[in-house]
Amino acid sequence: MKRWLMAGALMAGAFLATSAVFAADDAARPDDGKNPANPLITDKWNFRPLVVVTPDAGQPAYRHLRQQLEETRGAFTDRDMLLYTVEGDSGTRHGQPMTPYETRALLEALGVSPDQGLTTILIGKDGGKKVQLRGDVDLEEIYATIDRMPMRRAAEK
Questions:
Q1: pTM of the model
Q2: Is 38 in contact with 106 (CB distance < 8 Å)?
Q3: CB 46 within 8 A of CB 81
Q4: Partners of 91 in beta bridges
Q5: What are the residues whose beta carbons fall under 8 Å from the beta carbon of 30, sequence distance 6 or more?
Q6: Measured between alpha carbons, how far is 127 from 104 in angstroms, rounded to an integer?
Q7: Which one of 13, 84, 92, 130 has the minimum C-beta count within 10 Å?
Q8: pLDDT digits over 2-24, tens only?
């Protein structure tokens, strides 16, 4: 009987040690974008998110991008785009505030931080990153990129 108890205890210990290794591996793995708090999940196949991340709203390149967005609003919506902004630690989706948890999940899924300076990311309807730019951005180049995408071309027919 003692042998059975010892064997059971050894197996339980081995199981716990193995579980701890896999748990540590999961914790070290970067966010794969499947965090339910990540708002991009709901946009897949519906929109082309444009995510703009900046340390603060006062940066000239960010203000220039916002001006371009205002001037090309029709072109933006015509391409099924949706705007996300993260200014410091505050995020918005289509002009509506996101929770801090959603904002962190978004940044983790994209692997960016406001500390990196102005970063603009175009996400395709398939959920993949299509463009990632730092600094000043020309929206016409982003629109041209979208216009070359197969889903966009199919929708125009």
A1: 0.78
A2: yes
A3: no
A4: 86
A5: 108, 111
A6: 18
A7: 13
A8: 555 455 545 545 444 444 434 43
